[in-house]
Amino acid sequence: MQVDIGNALAEVATPGIPREALDRLDDRVAAAHERIEAGRASDEHGYATLNQPANVDVDAIQAAVEPFDDCENLVNVGIGGSALGAATISAALDSDVDAYYLDNVDPKWVADHLETIDLSKTALNVVSKSGMTAETLSNFLVVREAMEAAGVDWTERTWVTTGPEGNLRDLAEKHDLPSLPVPDGVPGRFSVLSTVGLAAAALQGHDIEAILDGARDADDALAPSLFDSPAYAYGAVNYALDQRGAGINVQLPYAESLETYAEWYSQLWAESVGKDGVGQTPVRALGATDQHSQLQLYRAGPHDKMVTFIRPQEREDTTIPETDLEGLSYLGGLTLGELIDAEFEATEASLANAGLPNVRIEIDRVDERAIGELLYSMEAATILAGELYNVDAFVQPAVEWGKKATRGLLGGGDFEEADEVAEKTELTIE
Ligand SMILES: O=P(O)(O)OC[C@H]1O[C@](O)(CO)[C@@H](O)[C@@H]1O
């Protein structure tokens, strides 16, 4: 993986990072790296994330999914870190198994899926670190009922990935379901390179050893200087630009297979650094599509953002047929890969020309090893940024109020503010 930070420097960008400021920041990166390495050495909560490749029991994962190797579909019920990592790998890589990620509790969306998926040929993976998440348990109960209605023995089609306690662990024990543990000391959003992300990948026939090899490549590339470490360079530049006013970071992958990656990155970054009034806001976008949507704002709007361009250096390709269409004959004989790469470079140049800071991330190709390297690198970048922001990157207390309010509104628990859940003045426009 390569990270080009040239378009984030003050020589070309506003806001930009003066080179001497980056040199000073590098001293903080070195100290942060030392802190991270100490946390890894003692398998400290959160820092243990970066030890994942060595801690994954690949044989246990393969054994857990082996009973389902006849399935045509995977339904993964989970939300947040219990879905987005596995979904990122599914979206990136080809498989004969159709994977569906039921994370949201949109009733029509869930019902439509259950009407179209042949549940008799489906493996159900229920994933929840806590085993208590309302969306996940509700969707599991709905899918189980649909399986029963379809005459499918759900206990023969289900495995569970969860912590040592909670409703899902109880369910697995009660029905003797195959189950996988979630790793200790790894917050859900950081758990893709563990059972949480890799079991679904294994079931889809992906080479999880190659994914872990890519993660090891990224681990090997960590160094006590941002100038020697692509992952730390990215985390440090995001932080430094945020400090200078680029409070938004647009994730702009130029590959449909990386669109879900932008969603995964958004949770990873936002839940990790969004604390104590600080934290850059990740925005999910897609190239070339958003050149016809948001680019106007990126180039001519406020310079309160940076853009992260991501692309594979190698692509499968398709030739554009010759044409005599007025003004478009130049496209004939080119390939769609040449076109999207030209758009990538032209859009990057357009933003650089307008002085908007941007960073280029390039991976070799969209395959297991490169995906593993990208995912691990972003985990390391986020952990480094947490050190630079001086926040605890491994908790997410701000999500709890809403959860309690939801339970309070539904009678699922005491929540004294329930009747003040949405304080607003009456000004409804009809
Ligand atoms: O895996 P669980 O415990 O169901 O949590 C799902 C998601 O919910 C959160 O805890 C936020 O509410 C995320 O951090 C986590 O990835």
Keyword list:
single chain, 430 residues, alpha/beta, Rossmann fold, five-stranded mixed beta sheet, five-stranded parallel beta sheet, 10 strands, 43% helix, 12% strand, binds 6-O-phosphono-beta-D-fructofuranose, carbohydrate derivative binding, Probable glucose-6-phosphate isomerase, gluconeogenesis, isomerase
In N-to-C order, the SSE pattern is EHHHEHEHEHEHEHHHEHEHEHEHH
Assign the structural class, choosing from mainly alpha, mainly beta, alpha/beta, alpha+beta, or little secondary structure: alpha/beta
Q: What is the CATH C level class of the largest domain, in words?
A: Alpha Beta
Number of helices: 15
Computed Rg:
23 Å
Q: How would you describe the shape?
A: globular
User: Which spans of ≥5 residues are poorly predicted at pLDDT below 50?
Assistant: none
Bound ligand species: 6-O-phosphono-beta-D-fructofuranose
Helix content: 40-55%
3D structure, described in words:
The chain is of the alpha/beta class and 430 residues long. It folds into 2 domains: 2-37 and 212-389, Rossmann fold (3-Layer(aba) Sandwich), CATH 3.40.50; 51-206, Rossmann fold. The protein is built from 15 helices and 10 strands. It has helices at 19-41, 52-55, 58-65, 84-92, 107-116, 134-149, 167-174, 195-203, 208-220, 230-243, 259-273, 295-300, 336-353, 368-389, 400-409, and strands at residues 2-4, 73-77, 98-102, 122-128, 158-162, 179-181, 248-253, 281-284, 305-312, 358-363. Helix 1 crosses helix 10 (230-243) and helix 3 (58-65) crosses helix 8 (195-203). The longest helix has 23 residues, at 19-41. It binds 6-O-phosphono-beta-D-fructofuranose. 6-O-phosphono-beta-D-fructofuranose (F6P) is lined by residues 79-82, 128-130, 133, 136, 188-189, 271, 396, 399.
